[in-house]
Write a structure and sequence with these properties.
single chain; 335 residues; alpha/beta; TIM Barrel; eight-stranded parallel beta sheet; 14% strand
Amino acid sequence: MRTFIEGMPKAELHVHLEGTLEPEHIFALAQRNGIELEYKTPQDVIDAYDFHDLPSFLTIYYAAMGVLREEQDFYELAYRYFEKVAVENVLYVELFFDPQAHTSRGVGFATIIGGIHRAQSAAETNLGVKSNLIMCFLRDLSAESAMAHLEMALPYLDRIIGVGLDSDEKDNPPLKFAEVFKRAREHGLKLTMHCDVNQKDIGAHLWECLNDIQVDRIDHGVNALEDEAMCDEIAKRGLGLTVCPVSNRFVVQSLTATEIRAMLQKGMKATINSDDPAYFRAYMNENFIALQEEGDFSRDEIVQLSRNAFEVAWIDDAQKQIFLRALDDYVIDAA
């Protein structure tokens, strides 16, 4: 199973660019940009990864990205991620980025998206990894800030496929950003929102995503299993759920293997993703392997999770069929 998973074609739909910032790269960027760190070695950074819930993780996460200053920094960050996933047979990625976390430090929007876009183009040419970009809003900031950043993004809509909502969910419901997402929809952008595991008012947040925002996908979404009507609605709409097993283990002390299998049994389009792989020390293969070993997932179940990701990806049908044929051919050859 491990060998099968490692070679299986995959798509990743839930990964934060800033969450791919490896400790060694933090030090290299700090040195280049003249930034003094409180840590002496990359291992010291890893040792500081003492998070047990969403807020404790976010504190470390936002502090580390202060080393990202120039367009080249964003290029290197994205390209290094693409290099890693290319080796893991990830064919397609939808990559989150958080512009507010950088513009608040004086980094220009053009600098951020310019570096990422260059890396996307290079990765497709050099590595064969196709990708699209999702701009996320930080939900613990104001809706006005989110709207301002949507306006900043308008000249770059040819480089952005959708918008998302992440960061601290407590007391920051989807409806807070209803107007921003309505405007994004009017500009032709796809919509997704984080509904993190076991957060305050999570059931209400999920229904707001479905009924008020009318998202095209839900990030995480494990708590939907607590409501049969919600499960039925998600399955009926064919909405993707981007679940992140190793990330869940850090935040809620579980890979949520039981929940992921339940989603499959209910016909829900669960997918497997890495979330913030540099922090959780697990990219796509590690997530699939950990899940399979803990939950004793069958080959068919593992393939279905990969198939779901290609099926709910925000790509045209022709490209989708190319990816699905690659998966089917792999399964046949591995039989």
